[in-house]
Amino acid sequence: MATKTQIPPAAPGDNNRGATLSKEEIQRYSRHLIMPEVGMDGQLKLKQAKVLCIGTGGLGAPLGLYLAAAGVGRIGLVDFDVVDSTNLQRQVLFGTSDVGRPKITAAADRLRNLNPDIQIDTYETHLSSENALDLFKDYDIIVDGTDNFPTRYLVNDASVLLGKPNVYGSIFRFEGQITVFGAPGGPCYRCLYPEPPPPGLVPSCAEGGVLGVLPGIVGTIQAAETLKLIIGKGQPLIGRLLLFDALAMKFRELKLRKNPDCPVCGTHRTLTKLIDYAEFCGIRGEEAPSTVTNIPEITPKDLKARLDRGDDLYILDVREPHEYQICNINGHLIPLGELPKRVHELDSSREIVAHCRSGKRSADAVQFLQKAGFRKIWNLKGGILAWSDDVDPKVPKY
């Protein structure tokens, strides 16, 4: 069994001298105040605390709501995205009327309405190596609600360099992970994942999906850990990785150890400044597949024109069967994972146009088929999403 650890509050000023709660605040937080573990002292620590939330999406939504409701005095929000209708299945900060609005604006409006007595700082920007340290320095705790590896490594390294705890959460399909990185004596993200996975190996939520309630569960646990860090009570998830499986409805825990050779938090640190995290993770920005791998592409409009002319084209759909049920453009379904054992079904003498949802998986399919000797093959640029935008808006986007 893990040793029970009590931690000091992350917020400055342990004695809270000069800080008070108004009559209205005492009434608002009365259910906290009557708990001896929180009480007046703990609520004043919450009022003085400063927490920076990276992302206002699936994890950031419940996180922001519960931190604001709990009375965390200053909450910073970092996001640069806009609300999309596909967000509403899980990002409970937003409503239908928010679609098209900047997430940062919609989130701030909702949190200020929930608790007008707290300060909400908004940073409508892409977090980068150039701005992370400046954004983090004025906050006590950093909470990572991101969904990509370059930003996770960036948040980790910036937090460790500044000595800030990093409350980490991640989600995929039915599973989630939560821990606290960067606490004194505890491990960091690089201790758990010294190297990023190869690009494309781990699909994003947009590619693999996520159960709508899952980020609510994981984000709420992140909020609970953040509140515990602030008030200095309980046993935090330092050196402990909490795993949640919604399908089995089970929690389990793994012990994490600090790596003494970690380049960021180890005994002999070699990483003392922020780096190019896209390059570190092997990602080349927004390059199109044809730029990266010389894969031939065809645009949806050009494909439509050729089909209308009656050209003999074989449309290869490399998505999964459940995606094909959502929408299709009358292609022949051979999921990417089945392609190696079903390649004999394809006629190399015909022109083949491969497509998927966005063009990424079909680019991999084209590359595989090129290596197998196929020469008359194209990737549908932008996939079925671009087809819906440029050719047939009746095709639903997902």
Give a structural overview.
34% of the residues lie in helices and 16% in strands. The protein contains 17 helices and 13 strands. Helix 4 links the parallel strand 1 and strand 2. The radius of gyration is 24 Å and the shape is elongated. The N terminus is likely disordered.
**Overall shape:** elongated
The number of distinct β-strands equals 13
- SS class: alpha/beta
CATH class of the largest domain: Alpha Beta
How many domain regions?
2
State the end-to-end CA separation: 44 Å
| Biggest pleated-sheet summary | 8 strands, mixed
Element-level helix/strand string? HHHEHEHEHEHEEHHHEEHHEHEHEHEHEH
Sum this structure up briefly.
With 398 residues, the protein is an alpha/beta fold.
Provide key terms for this protein.
5-stranded parallel sheet, Oxidized Rhodanese, domain 1, alpha/beta, Rossmann fold, disordered N terminus, single chain, 398 residues, 8-stranded mixed sheet
Write the layout of secondary structure elements.
Elements: H1 23-28, H2 30-33, H3 39-48, E1 50-54, H4 60-70, E2 74-78, H5 103-114, E3 119-123, H6 132-136, E4 141-144, H7 149-162, E5 166-172, E6 175-181, H8 189-192, H9 205-208, H10 214-231, E7 240-245, E8 250-255, H11 277-280, H12 289-293, E9 297-298, H13 300-309, E10 313-317, H14 321-326, E11 332-333, H15 339-342, E12 351-355, H16 360-371, E13 377-380, H17 383-390
